[in-house]
Design brief:
The protein is mainly α. It has 17 helices and 4 strands. The strands form 2 sheets. It has a two-stranded antiparallel sheet. The protein has a two-stranded antiparallel sheet with strand order 3-4.
Amino acid sequence: MAVWRKLWSRNLMAASLLVCILLHTMDVHARPANMSASKDKLPASKDENEILPPDHLNGVKMEMDGHLNKDFHQEVFLGKEMEEFDEDSEPRRNRKKLIDIFTKVDFNKDRSVSAKEMQRWIMEKTEEHFQEAMKENKNSFRAVDPDGDGHVTWDEYRVKFLASKGFNEKEIAEKIKNNEDLKLDEETQEVLESLKDRWFQADNPPADQLLNEQEFLSFLHPEHSRGMLKYMVKEIVRDLDQDGDKKLTLSEFISLPVGTVENQQAQDIDDDWVRERKKEFEEVIDSDRDGIVTMEELEEYMDPMNEHNALNEAKQMIAVADENQNHNLELDEILKYSEYFTGSKLMDYARNVHEEF
C-alpha cells in the first residue's frame, strides 16, 4: 500500500472494526484491519485536511487505498444532496425529497425511470461532485499559495504541510531555504516522499516543478486528470499485486490484510468483504471475463465520467429495486428500496405515494 495512505489510515480502520464488533452493527463493505498494528492518533487538523489528498473521492468507485467505495450508489444518485438524507431526519420529509428526485430523474415524465434516464442523472450528479471539488480546490490552493502568484513550488507546499502537522512554519521555511536538515521523524519523512512523487506526477509537461491551480486540483483529486487517474490506478495495482506482473487476479484482489482477528463476528466481516470484492471483480471490473484485471480495465472502471460505466451502473441500480422486472424503476420501488439509494430507510414508504406524487 502507498506509504502515506497506509500509515494514516490503518488506525482508523482498526478502530472502525472494533466499534463494529462491540456494537454488533457490522458494515459488510468494510475491510478488516490488523488490530495489532493500531496505535493512538489524533484526528487530522482542518488545515491538514485542506491541503492533503483525500482517501475518499466522491463519485469514484474505489478509494485511494483500494477499498470499494461503499457509498458510491448514494453519491451518484444524490450528488450534493447526499448529506441531507440523514438517518435522524424525519422519514416523511425524506420521502418527499426522494419523490422530488424521482420526478427529476423521470425526464420524459412517464412515471418510470429507464436506464438511459438514470444514466443521464448519474452523469449530472457526478458533475456536481466535480464542481464541488473544484470549488474546494480554490480554497486549498490559496492556502498553499500565500503570495498569490498562481503557482506553488514543492518547497512552498512542504512548508504548509509541515505547519499543518504542528511544525513551526517560519523555522521550517528558513531551514528549507538554507538546505538544512529538517530532523523529521521517519513516518513524516515517508509521507513527504510519497507526496513528492505524487506532486511531480501532477506537474504537466513541460515539467517546471510548479503546480498551477488546475495541476493542484489533479494533485488532490486524480479523477480530474487522465494522467493522474492512471497514476492512481498504478498505485492501487502496486498495493494489491503480489507477483509483480502489474495485473490483478481474483485472489490478489480479494486477499485480506496481514494478521487475523480471532472472534467469529470479525470473521463474518472478513467473509462479507471477500464476497463483495469477488462479485465486483467478476461482474464489473473484469470486463472481458478472462479472470485477469489489467490496468486499462481498472482505469475504465474507476473513470467517473465514463458514460458506458454510468449506463451499466444505472442498469445495476434499477435491477436492485425492479420488483416487477420491467427494467424500469417506478416510484413505489424506489421508495421501498430507499436505503439503497439514499442510505436512509423510510418507514411506511408506500403510504400516500400516489397522492404525494
